Please model this.
Amino acid sequence: MAHGVVLDLVYATPQNITGKPIYARPMCLMHRDAQKCLHQAALGAMRLGLRLKIFDAFRPHEAQVLLWDAAPDKAYVADPAIGSNHTRGVAVDLTLVDAGGLELDMGTAFDEITEQYFHGATSIEPSAQRNRCVLLGLMTLAGWSHH
Model:
């Protein structure tokens, strides 16, 4: 993908809460306006010697249904009957990686269904809280809003 972004589309692999791939092909799609904001965030990350690593972006309705059905706690997954920012192509799940491609510690694994997964969790290590704040700052400055 452009902008030095690393792709690791987890839902195209069995390494997700369903235990099986929910995407037939690993494609990272998003709305044109979201892509422009992603570009700005990627440039901001590069200025800090970091890169963005994307786990998920646009999510088809069928995939949202599979995630909903597999979620042990529905509070962590949007109801497919309502839809989500992912199903509208205006959300992205991502993290930061260093110059060597190693993920910065964010306190939890991707898709961890615990209270620590919420962005404002204070029960994680201070360094992980700091990394989350850097990511949130980059995304906010680029035009994203956190929900």
In short: The first helix runs from residue 32 to 47. The first strand starts at residue 6 and ends at 7. The chain has three helices and three strands. The chain has a mean pLDDT of 91.
